[in-house]
Amino acid sequence: MPDPEQSTAGPDQPDTFAARTDAAEGLPLGERADAFSALHDELRTRLESGGSASA
């Protein structure tokens, strides 16, 4: 399973947000909270920097 805290999407790769969200859903509660927190932080950073966040 990919690490939900690492982004694998690059400028020429499709965003894997949906896959990472699905993977986080299957984690135990504590790990799930950490995974969603990491996704939240990444999306906030991308939005604040003007990066593409097509999720």
What portion of residues belong to β-strands? under 5%
Low-confidence stretches: none
Query: From N to C, what is the helix and strand string?
Result: HH
The DSSP helix count reads 2
The gross shape turns out to be flat
User: Termini distance?
Assistant: 20 Å
Mean pLDDT across all amino acids: 77
Structural class label: mainly alpha
Q: What's the main sheet like? A: none
The number of strands is 0
Relative helix content: 40-55%
Q: Radius of gyration, Cα only, in angstroms?
A: 11 Å
Explain what the structure shows:
This protein is an all-alpha fold. The chain is built from two helices and no strands. The longest helix is centred in the last third of the chain and has 20 residues.
What key attributes describe this structure?
55 residues, mainly alpha, 2 helices, 0% strand
Topology:
Elements: H1 17-25, H2 29-48
Concise description?
Helix content is 53%, strand content 0%. The radius of gyration is 11 Å and the shape is flat. The mean pLDDT is 77.
